[in-house]
Amino acid sequence: MNAEHEGTHSEEKDCNGYNTGGVIFLLNNLPLLYDPQEAFTTLRNVPYPTTNLAATYYMPVGQILSSRLNAAGFIRNICINFGPRGCCEVNPNTRLSPIFSPFVRQLHQLFQYGILYNPEDGEVAFRMRTNLSSLLSTLPANCRKIGCILGPVSLTQGPIMNLSDYLRAAADEQILLFVVGQIDPEIHSYIDDFVQVSDFELVATHGLISVILAMETKLGLV
Fold first, then answer.
1. From the CB of residue 113, how many other CB atoms can be counted at a distance below 10 Å?
2. Burial (0-12, 13-18, 19+ Cβ within 10 Å), 49
3. Which end of the chain is more exposed for a tag (fewer CB within 10 A), N or C?
4. How many CA atoms lie within 13 A of 107 on its CB side?
5. How does pLDDT run across 209-218, given as a tens digit for each residue?
6. Order of strands across the sheet with 115-117?
7. Mean pLDDT for the chain?
8. How far is CA 140 from CA 9, 20, 60, 121, in A?
9. How far is CA 136 from the centre of its chain?
10. Which domains, and CATH codes, for the chain?
């Protein structure tokens, strides 16, 4: 079955019973983690090796899946932009192994076959999309795409609301997609609003935690 033409996770199960609202995360080109001793060989021979991609995204995906936000059924989808390796969706019902090595194997299989199923219930767990445009075309119509600035705001960026104020003003029925990671020219053209997550520079994983906690606070989960 062609992974590109199957429905999105939010179409298969509407936010675990919630008919409106919800959250989608897009982890966009996070800084690649690698062993400094292997950096030269890695970047020269295989710029985006699967093992390093797994090391980069294992913790952020785990943070989302294990969050109270997901347990309460508010996560509609988890999206990853691997850059030249393509994009993928992760079903919020996916159970991530507490051990890192199975995630590496899953990514190897995902890049090979384009789709992975949960052996327990047959649900799609991971699905590849060929590029960012293909991935974003699957989003719900009322999805608001929000670029997360994880540090001080440049004067050239103009007035930008902080995350807390933005979420207070956001309607409960609005689906919010948070772009966490690199805000490059490609994703910039798709973003509707920008928010400042922190006054200080944060790495992507810490910024993600801040966004998750802010959403949990908005929805009364903490």
1. 12
2. middle
3. N
4. 23
5. 999 999 999 9
6. 115-117, 124-129, 87-90, 75-81, 22-28, 175-181, 143-149, 193-196, 161-162
7. 87
8. 11, 11, 23, 25
9. 12
10. 3-218 (3.40.1280.10)
